[in-house]
Amino acid sequence: MVDETSHASGAPNQQTEAFYAVKFLRRKRFETLLLSSESCPVKTSSICGDPRNSCIDKVPMTKHPSPSKQSIVMLSSPKGGVGKSSLSRNILVLAAQAGRQVLGLDMDKQATLATWAERRERVRASIPAVSHIPVHRASLDDWRSTLKMARQSSADFIVIDTPPSIEINMTAILGLCEGSDFVLVPCQQSQDDLDSVIPWMRHLKQSGAKAAFIINRANIRTRSYATIRSKLLNVGPVCPVEIAQAEEISLANGKGLGVMDLSRPKNAEAFGALWSYLRQELDL
Ligand SMILES: Nc1ncnc2c1ncn2[C@@H]1O[C@H](COP(=O)(O)OP(=O)(O)OP(=O)(O)O)[C@@H](O)[C@H]1O
Ligand SMILES: [Mg+2]
Fold first, then answer.
1. Which CATH architecture fits 20-55+65-282?
2. Closest Cα to atom 23, ligand 1: which residue?
3. What does pTM read for this prediction?
């Protein structure tokens, strides 16, 4: 058993290293990962915990656009605690493992995504095979310049994590949605979630954004799952892959990892399918 209290800082000890043994990828893939981690657009030291240390000016600007197509995925929901940050980091990990040059934008003052990236860097100090995931922390007030910076960076896969209270700066949230190629709206299996995400999806559709719901913390064996899914389908597209309520998801999060960094994750199939779905939607 892993003692969860003995390394709350996120620094790995021997036990965690053994438990969270990073997947021993096939040699070629492993090399690709290392290569992509070295060529990341933001240096480890510029991952921001403090917005004053903005790494906006540290992201190398490319004079010529990146040869591979740049994609921007945004996670947005007016409901708090539904899995925006959790899905953001897992999607970043999936993209990095697929050889994409990733960049996360944390637009939430809580800085959940940026803090996770800092934890990840500490893990990487002892397990270098863990891919480097740069996360830039920014204020919603600076959404235009942040989006511009991301577009001009050499990153070809960008994930934007946003705060729940969209009404605080609706202009910024809608601007980011319009600037994204795809908006994922996480939703849990409750009427409270529906009450919050359904009007939001209608708003997104009116604004012309390409968006889909994704059911998170799903328990497909329950009746409420089918009910919630059909109610969502009445309003907009639903990602055909749901993410289960699973301890390994929060466990990986707490260690600066994504589910697909774990050895033999129980939810590997779901996350693999989520990546396939995103590739289809983004035409990658
Ligand atoms: N599928 C899941 N299974 C188990 N735990 C999950 C799952 N998805 C998210 N969690 C956990 O639920 C909590 C809330 O998730 P998360 O922080 O991603 O939500 P959020 O929408 O970003 O919240 P906020 O609105 O406050 O930014 C976290 O502790 C996360 O680890
Ligand atoms: Mg969050």
1. 3-Layer(aba) Sandwich (3.40)
2. 81
3. 0.81
